[in-house]
Amino acid sequence: MGRARVGAAFLLLGLIWAACGPSQAATGIVTRVDGDLETVEAFTVLTTDGDRLTLTVDASTRWDFPPTHLQEHLRSGEAIYVEWTDDDVVVFVSDG
C-alpha cells in the first residue's frame, strides 16, 4: 500500500508541474518591446522557425538578465531564449 501512495504522489506532482510549467520554448530575435525605460509589459520575437510571437510579461516571469536588457537585444539583433505558457505569458527569458 505504501508504494501505491508514493507512486500516486509522484504522478500528482508530475501533473501539477505539467500544468504550471512552460508549454513552449523558442530562440529568436526581439522585434518589438512594449513598456518604458524601467519595465517591460510585452515583447515580440521572430523565432528561428519563422513564427512571430507577441508574449506578455507578468510578475512571475523569471529573467536571466534585467528586463530592460531586451532593448539591447532589439537594437543588436542578438537572439534570446524564451519559454511561455499556452496563454502567451512568458515564464523565462535568457540570452539565446
Which percent range describes the beta-strand content? Answer: 35-45%
Mean pLDDT: 85
Low-confidence stretches: 9-18
Helical content class? 25-40%
Radius of gyration: 17 Å
* Main sheet: strand order: 3-2-1-5-6-4
Q: What would the principal axes of the Cα set say about the shape?
A: globular
Assembly classification:
single chain
Extended strand count = 6
Let me know the largest β-sheet: 6 strands, mixed
- Helix/strand order, N-terminal first: HEEEEHEE
Query: Helix tally?
Result: 2
State the separation between the terminal residues, measured CA to CA.
Answer: 47 Å
Class derived from helix and strand content: alpha+beta
Summarize the structure.
27% of the residues lie in helices and 40% in strands.
Structure in words:
With 96 residues, the chain is α+β, with helices and mostly antiparallel strands. Helices cover 27% and strands 40% of the residues. It contains two helices and six strands; from the N terminus they run αββββαββ. It has a six-stranded mixed sheet. β1 (24-35) and β2 form a beta hairpin. It is globular. Mean pLDDT is 85; it is low at 9-18.
How would you summarize the topology of this molecule?
Elements: H1 2-20, E1 24-35, E2 40-47, E3 52-56, E4 62-63, H2 70-76, E5 80-84, E6 90-95
Parallel strand pairs: 4-6
Antiparallel strand pairs: 1-2, 1-5, 2-3, 5-6
Task: For the structure shown, list the relevant keywords.
96 residues, alpha+beta, six-stranded mixed sheet, 27% helix
